[in-house]
Amino acid sequence: MSTLPPLRLPHAEILEDPEILEPYRFDESHVAGDLPLAVVKPKSREDFRELVRVAKAEGFGLVPRGAGTGKAGGCVPRGRVVVVDMGAWPGGIQVSNQNLTLTAPASAWLRDVKSAAEAANLFYPPDPNSWPLCAFGGSLATNAGGPNACKYGMTRHWVLALDALMADGEIHSFGIGSVKANVGPSLAQLLIGSEGILGMITSATVRLIPKPAEFLTLLLPVENFHELLELPGRLCANGFLPSAFEFFDTAVLSELRESGPEEARRLPGKALAILEFDDRGCTSEAFIASLTGALGPVSEHLQLASESRQRDQIWNIRRLTSAFLKERHPKKISEDIVVPRDRIPAFFDGLEKLGIPAVTYGHLGDGNLHVNLLAAGEMEPLELERQVMDLFKLAVGLGGTLSGEHGIGLAKREAFLALSDPGQIELLRGLKRAWDPAGIFNPGKVI
Hints:
alpha+beta, Uridine Diphospho-n-acetylenolpyruvylglucosamine Reductase, domain 3, 3 domains, globular
């Protein structure tokens, strides 16, 4: 292993014991990384200045890391790098009811960000599946999504301003804490979802909205999975925009019933959707009657969660699905392709024609489908690579993309480079050269 020169950071914690460094080789993806030279937990601007100076002088990279819950290998070390664990970065969560904003450091837990907004009777919608376990900074760097993206969009739609460590070793501010700022291209938005290749986000200000006063949560069981596929487009065309529209195909639902928790074993139908609305008046008889009419014949077995406890049980099952499948199939690979709502039926037709043995669940309302290859660990590597690439090509060919919320990182880098417009890739590389001339930030990722 390459040696690291002595780091003299005034306030940072520095970890160099190989046994302690070992877990930093991994995130929640299937990608395994190299052992980093060290892990640094900065606590001051002085730490960052010196760290950047030494990284440039010695030619090693800096890999940002939050809680390590990413699914694309974005924080996985590759090559001669130091992992920068942002977990000790100082700062508190501040909510402004007057400005409808929240400011928090990258080290804050996303669950605490959402709770702080809720305590002020406000709402921060981004809710990736890992929201109880992930860091706020990681959710910004990866532009996290989740079920609420169906109505409220991705993390980037909520970011007003941020602070970030840049290549000069200083922390710079981008944007202001207000909804209107029109002074050229938004540099803050370039950092959101960039996976740390342009700089490291240290804090951010996000906008909030009043907390929804009502929730209507429904289970929609069907006998034929394909009955669900046209519903997202149909609902939107009839003026209904769910705050979430999740689904389980027949195979996933069967696995949950067979080995899931007790409440999962009671789930109805051969396939199943979870619909949720948070519009004012959504619990009224008039709203439900109108919704039932828009759904058509499949609404015959519609079930309403009549109390908050039932709603919580339904969402607990949905949120444990990924971990449950991972436990049952440790070597599975889960992709998160996206197709437009009106192309969802065409996607599943194409998947069937390709003969890819996959099971699916996820965000049907916005076309972000978690396609799982459960037998990936038993497949020949070249065959697995072919099937994954065919899956990506199918999504892209239908006007979609190869990742809706997991990002690119190391896991999808080669596919991203192969399927993207070469002109777009060159523009991205030009941005990388301009923002990070020495190439120290998260080297080897995305582009």
